[in-house]
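Aim 2 progress update. The chain analyzed this quarter is reproduced below.
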Amino acid sequence: MPKQVDYESRRHRIAEAVCLLADEQGPEGVSMRDVATRAQVSLGAVQRCFRTKEEMLLFAVDHVGERVTARVRARIAAGPAQSAATALGHATDEVALLREEHRAEARIWLAFVAQAAVSASLAEPLRNSYAALQELFARLITEAAASGAADGPDAVCEARTLLALTDGLTGHVLIGHATAREAEGVLHAHLAGLWARLGVTGPEAEG
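Predicted structure tokens:
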């Protein structure tokens, strides 16, 4: 009886190999042959999962985006009674990829962003990931503002600003311009300023 192949599991295994190679030499230096070697599968197995290198890279970008998004959702779901302000703090901490265990993931993500600047097809999944995160930030800001004393914010503008800040801090930590602790301080100070403008009780004051 022919052996059944779990193609979805194999695709994710290949995506992990792509990420490891992209971390070492950038997405442009990734070849299907090298991916096959790193994933410990045949070149034919890679080609059966992905017709082209571009298709393989697109899947890897989605793979990284989904991994970050899953952690964000898990942090929020872990405390269903938490306020929207607390949930937003957890979400931004995850998206900024500041912790040491996420440093490789941060390098991979920014490598894909850099390559996407000259690749329209690679830019599309990145835009989708950013749009999903911006929508989540905007929703949490709107929910938090509903309990505040000030007028409601332009949630989309605030979310876009916050997303740009998290992305920028990721890069600053990677190149050594700021430590992870310093970056966390900037992020938390920004959130504290946002809650103050809205008359919202921030996470620190919730007890």
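The radius of gyration is 19 Å. The mean pLDDT is 88. These observations will guide the mutagenesis experiments scheduled for the next reporting period.
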